[in-house]
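TICKET: design request
STATUS: open
ATTACHED STRUCTURE:
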């Protein structure tokens, strides 16, 4: 008798979990600062010293642009860029602002420490 009660409780719990999992919205992982850093890693020397733009840098810029598909992702990318650039000494913000254009990418905000990332769409 006890075994049947435990089985009924277990079955009820499994049914509730199944129903809840079907009705819950799908979780989608957003853009991370690690992805931003990895995408732009080959750009650092250029952003500090100028000169020839490494091909791997533009590949990273294009990759990051492809990852930042939603307004939330673009805001996150903006915030990460500001945080990362603020922690690295010697970045030329003029070169940083021109980087998307040099790589043939359009970014809907200026890459600058003064950009208000909360307004990025």
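STATUS: resolved
RESOLUTION: sequence designed for all positions
ATTACHED SEQUENCE:
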């Amino acid at each position: 008798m006890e075994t049947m009660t435990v089985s009924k409780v277990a079955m009820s719990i499994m049914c509730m979990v199944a129903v809840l999992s079907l009705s819950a919205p799908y979780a989608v992982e957003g853009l991370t600062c690690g992805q931003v850093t990895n995408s732009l890693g080959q750009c650092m020397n250029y952003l500090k010293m100028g000169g020839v733009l490494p091909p791997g840098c533009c590949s990273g810029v294009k990759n990051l642009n492809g990852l930042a598909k939603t307004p939330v992702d673009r805001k996150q990318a903006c915030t990460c860029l500001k945080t990362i650039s603020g922690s690295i000494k010697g970045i030329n913000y003029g070169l940083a602002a021109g980087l998307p254009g040099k790589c043939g990418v359009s970014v809907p905000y200026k890459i600058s420490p003064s950009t208000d990332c909360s307004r990025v769409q």
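CLOSING REMARK: The chain has one domain: 33-119. DSSP finds six helices and no strands in the chain.
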